[in-house]
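Worked Example 4.2. Consider the chain below.
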Amino acid sequence: MKKSTARAFWILTLAALWAAGCATTGVNKGDINLISVDQEIAMGQDFSREIAKTYPMLDDVEVTSYFQRLGERIARSSDWPDLQFHFQVVNTADVNAFAIPGGWVYVHRGLIERADNVSEVACVMAHEIGHVVARHGTETLTKQYGIAIVTQLVLGQNPKLWQKVVADLFTTAGILAYSRKQELEADDLGVRYAYRAGYDPNGMATFFEKLLQLQEREPTLLEVWFSTHPPTSQRIERVRAQIASLQLHPGLVKDDPEFLRVRDRIRAMPAVKTLRESQAKPESQR
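Applying the procedure from the previous section yields the following structure tokens:
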């Protein structure tokens, strides 16, 4: 193939990939994303299998079904209501939550145990749903690996490379490092989605405030959270300002008896360690 022909081919290919990646959920802010929606969903399946191999999931039907229903209610109020979301509870003491591309959201047990009411958990889940809807995971993938590598991935030219990318991402604790811009966008979307779903959006601000207080008392429980979701005072003020612009009404759910019952059920289970502690090798094996 002549150089001019090859160059034209790659320009057309990249243009097609750009169009496939950007025509998605209606909240894309113009950041480069060369992964199509179908490819993103497939990636999420691969990623979720890697997480299941390493993360201890809470095996309790009542608990998992409750949070699946809670998450689905919020997701239906998002800008990607037809995406099939999956919600799971990670059985560790960490106060954390994270999402991966394609609709997978994970909430750690420690976060649920320390929530005062359902609105706090609902707002955290809505924040993670915001990351998924805005496709922050695959935006980050495009930035981290560059156009050349991502082009090979989406064209299926190098299956082993795809496996390596999934493995590399998982070595960072299964959590993509989002930018400040992406975190703020997820805050905005989270407040909006929780409100649309009928939950009191003040839960976002009160939980962030709780994290700042908890960091002083039990910093090890927040080690992962603060590395990926730093809740600064300015960020809390920003969330408060957004909430003030909404028309809050008495019908918004702050708490409900079912959440309290499920939370107490979790609290009554045998104590667990943080993810880092549970994965640490005994001194005899170091």
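Confidence is low (pLDDT under 50) at residues 6-23. The chain has one domain: 18-267. Compare this with Example 4.1 before moving on.
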